[in-house]
């Protein structure tokens, strides 16, 4: 009598097939330019070749056991839950209760940050001065930990009980020096990091590393409007032009901190924080997602000659990727909102609805300032390049074998690269030229009845011969 592996118990045939497919793809896409020069986290260095013809070394991780894990086949402790890119360094928040600092050129792990008691779900890079960075990590252990990124032996400050339940989202707004956190207690909290930054600059004048006498960041605002766990946070990014070149109805974004928060029910709120009163006011909802929001990405867009507006891109578990344009001057046809509602819409302003919606099972989004293109990190592990003009996918990069949770652009000296990270425990580096190669508009379908039958073609030829 033979016994099945323990991991096969209570698994359906479909789950077993999924595990086998992921294991086969992991082996097939383990290295090479065609699969994004993968860095296998926790394995070792994966230097980027000097030319796209060179082959990077294959990983030493055992891939044979993946199939036995069936639907649970993933990157295990190295699953990337959140990430942040700074220059040529990628910071990853991982399921194995640690964060990691990886050099994108060499693939080396420069540091690991290992004091959390649960999966690390949020990471924020806080510049102090050129060459020096504070790293903040958030975890299911409800703690915020602050690290001297270049000297990562231990956190120099721990904010215990920073939430009443699991922390699931973290975001840093540099112009206002405000750190935002959210999680399962349905509360968004705002922490003032200005005192910490001033302390860090003073400390680095006389010491090579930050000490343990850091001031605890004061809590300067909070709101509890969400009815489900807060899972994503974002704020206004740096603008490509001064406010005089913004659309008239978005120029008020420059007057205060404007924050977007999303929960696991699909509710997305736009909130304004007043620094004088330390009050958070919900301005309106972004009406569209039906269920959990994976990611919010605000991005500036030039909608007219040297005129800019801000869009908020939203990736949801309802298998949609939506664009919410904040300016009425740059809004296409407005799409319907969500079919279900949890009470009345919040905020004094009417709900904002999307003008673009892609039906794609995605986990991450990266708007590109090139020809109205948007890059999607998908559940099946592919990177899909979508054209707003055609409303369709125009190119696919295939490398990851699990959900793609992070996308960003790395401005390497030779050419830009797209960096992706995934639940498969790998980071991949895609040359811009490969992303834009073979980019073609989808063929328009033939009009009904336009094709000729063989008999009609013969009759037409006979008429032409006459």
Explain the layout of strands and helices:
Layout: H1 13-28, E1 39-40, E2 80-86, E3 89-94, E4 98-103, E5 109-113, E6 120-129, E7 132-139, E8 144-148, E9 157-159, E10 167-173, E11 178-183, E12 188-192, H2 194-204, E13 219-223, E14 230-235, E15 257-263, E16 268-274, E17 279-287, E18 293-304, E19 307-316, E20 320-325, E21 352-353, E22 356-358, E23 362-368, E24 373-378, E25 382-387, E26 392-398, E27 404-411, E28 416-422, E29 426-431, H3 432-436, H4 454-465
Short description:
It contains four helices and 29 strands. It has helices spanning 13-28, 194-204, 432-436, 454-465, and strands spanning 39-40, 80-86, 89-94, 98-103, 109-113, 120-129, 132-139, 144-148, 157-159, 167-173, 178-183, 188-192, 219-223, 230-235, 257-263, 268-274, 279-287, 293-304, 307-316, 320-325, 352-353, 356-358, 362-368, 373-378, 382-387, 392-398, 404-411, 416-422, 426-431.
Instruction: Find the count of extended strands (DSSP E, 2+ residues).
Output: 29
Strand order of the largest sheet: 14-15-16-17-21
> Architecture of the largest domain, CATH level 2?
7 Propeller
The share of residues in helices is under 10%
Q: What overall geometry do the principal axes of the alpha carbons give?
A: globular
The Cα radius of gyration reads 24 Å
User: Unreliable segments (pLDDT under 50, ≥5 consecutive)?
Assistant: 444-450
Q: What is the CATH level 1 assignment of the largest domain? A: Mainly Beta
CATH topology description of the largest domain: Methylamine Dehydrogenase, Chain H
């Amino acid at each position: 009598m033979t016994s099945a592996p323990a991991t096969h118990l209570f698994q359906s045939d479909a789950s077993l097939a999924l595990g086998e497919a992921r294991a086969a793809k992991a082996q097939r896409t383990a290295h090479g330019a065609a699969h994004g020069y993968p860095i296998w986290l926790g394995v070792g260095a994966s230097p980027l070749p000097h030319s796209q013809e060179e082959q990077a070394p294959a990983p030493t991780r055992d891939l044979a056991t993946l199939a036995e894990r069936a639907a649970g086949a993933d990157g295990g402790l190295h699953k990337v839950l959140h990430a942040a890119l700074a220059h040529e360094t990628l910071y990853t928040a991982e399921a194995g209760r640690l964060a990691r600092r990886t050099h994108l050129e060499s693939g080396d792990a420069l540091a690991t940050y290992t004091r959390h008691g649960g999966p690390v779900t949020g990471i924020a890079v806080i510049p102090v001065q050129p060459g020096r960075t504070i790293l903040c990590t958030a975890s299911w252990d409800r703690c915020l930990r602050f690290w001297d990124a270049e000297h990562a032996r231990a956190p120099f400050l721990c904010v215990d009980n920073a939430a009443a339940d699991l922390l699931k989202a973290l975001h840093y707004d540099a112009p206002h020096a405000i750190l935002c956190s959210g999680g399962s207690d349905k509360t968004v909290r705002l922490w003032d990091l200005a005192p910490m930054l001033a302390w860090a600059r003073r400390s680095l004048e006389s010491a090579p590393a930050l000490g343990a006498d850091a001031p605890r960041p004061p809590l300067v605002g909070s709101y509890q409007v969400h009815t489900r766990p807060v899972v994503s946070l974002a704020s206004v990014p740096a603008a490509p032009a001064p406010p005089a070149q913004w659309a008239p109805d978005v120029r008020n974004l420059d007057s205060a901190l404007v924050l977007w928060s999303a929960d696991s029910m699909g509710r997305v709120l736009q909130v304004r924080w007043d620094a004088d009163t330390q009050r958070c006011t919900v301005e309106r909802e972004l009406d569209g997602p039906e269920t959990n929001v994976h990611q919010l990405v605000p991005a500036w867009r030039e909608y007219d000659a040297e005129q800019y507006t801000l869009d908020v891109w939203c990736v949801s578990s309802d298998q949609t990727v939506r664009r919410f344009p904040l300016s009425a001057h740059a809004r296409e046809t407005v799409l319907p909102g969500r079919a279900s509602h949890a009470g009345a819409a919040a905020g004094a302003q009417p709900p904002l609805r999307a003008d673009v919606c892609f039906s794609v099972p995605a986990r991450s989004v990266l708007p590109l300032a090139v020809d109205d293109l948007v890059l999607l990190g998908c559940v099946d592990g592919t990177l899909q390049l979508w054209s707003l003009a055609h409303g369709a996918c125009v190119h696919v990069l295939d490398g990851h074998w699990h959900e793609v949770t992070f996308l960003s652009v790395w401005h390497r000296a030779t050419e830009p690269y797209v960096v992706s990270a995934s639940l498969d425990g790998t980071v991949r580096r895609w040359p811009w030229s490969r992303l834009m190669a073979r980019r073609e508009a989808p063929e328009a379908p033939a009009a009904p009845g336009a094709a000729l039958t063989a008999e009609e073609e013969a009759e037409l030829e006979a008429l032409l011969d006459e």
